[in-house]
Amino acid sequence: MKIEVISYQSEWPRLFEELRCAAVEALAGIDVAVEHVGSTSVPGLAAKPVIDIDIILPQWERFGEVVRRLGTLGFAHRGDLGIPGREAFTRSPRFAFAHNLYVCRPGTPALENHLKLRNYLRSRPDEAARYAALKFKLAERFPDDIDAYCRGKTDLIGEFLLAAGIDSDSVAKIRADNLRDE
Questions:
Q1: How far apart are CA 94 and CA 73, in angstroms?
Q2: CA distance 148 to 166
Q3: What's the CA gap between 4 and 144, in Å, rounded?
Q4: Whether this model's pTM surpasses 0.90
Q5: At a CB cut-off of 8 Å and minimum separation 6, what does 171 contact?
Q6: Where are the strands (E) in 3-46, listed by range?
Q7: What does R_g of the chain's alpha carbons equal in angstroms?
Q8: Of the CATH numbers 2.40.30.10, 3.30.465.60, 3.30.460.10, 3.40.50.2000, which one belongs to the domain with range 12-181?
Q9: Is 161:171 a contact under the CB 8 Å cutoff?
């Protein structure tokens, strides 16, 4: 599949909200927080047009129930894919747009990575522009190689995470996980 990076789209928050509302309704009565993460969550940032959503589940003992309820929306649990504390789900055919859904344990490195990177880029439009330029360049250079595209972003993401306050050991682990995961 060809890697497509496009300019920021004003519809991305609305698409996230569609996913968020469906998840909140399906998970009614379970304490969760639902976060828009990834590049589509940063106003003005170019991105692959894929909405990333993290559902934060403080009561991890209810994870089985969450899997069952998300299943009613067409999501199927895929496992942690080698990233502890971040459980991945298949895309649901109910939603006509590309999306990634994760259920995360609070305080885990994977969740902190998502939230701190998002918040850092939201607060630093200059760095978001630098990141966008790199993503366009990598998508042009590696149009059919998602692994090379992801490897090409890893060092800059690590730099941003350090600037956002994540310690160097955690950044090294995140780098290793990202290179293995992608």
A1: 7
A2: 24
A3: 10
A4: yes
A5: 158, 161, 162
A6: 33-37
A7: 16
A8: 3.30.460.10
A9: yes
| Nearest alpha-carbon partner for 86 in 73, 71, 100 | 100
**DSSP 3-state of 76:** coil
Q: Token pair for residue 113?
A: 């990575």
Half-sphere exposure of 106 (CA within 13 A, CB side): 9
pLDDT digits (tens, 9 = 90+) for 107-158: 998 899 999 999 999 999 999 999 999 999 999 999 999 989 999 999 999 9
Task: Tell me the per-residue pLDDT of 63-91, one tens digit each, with 9 for 90 and over.
Answer: 999 999 999 999 999 999 988 999 999 99
Which residue in the block uniquely carries the two structure tokens 């129930």? 65
- Residues 136 and 139: their CA atoms lie apart, in Å, by 5
Backbone angles phi, psi at 101, to 5 degrees: -120, 130
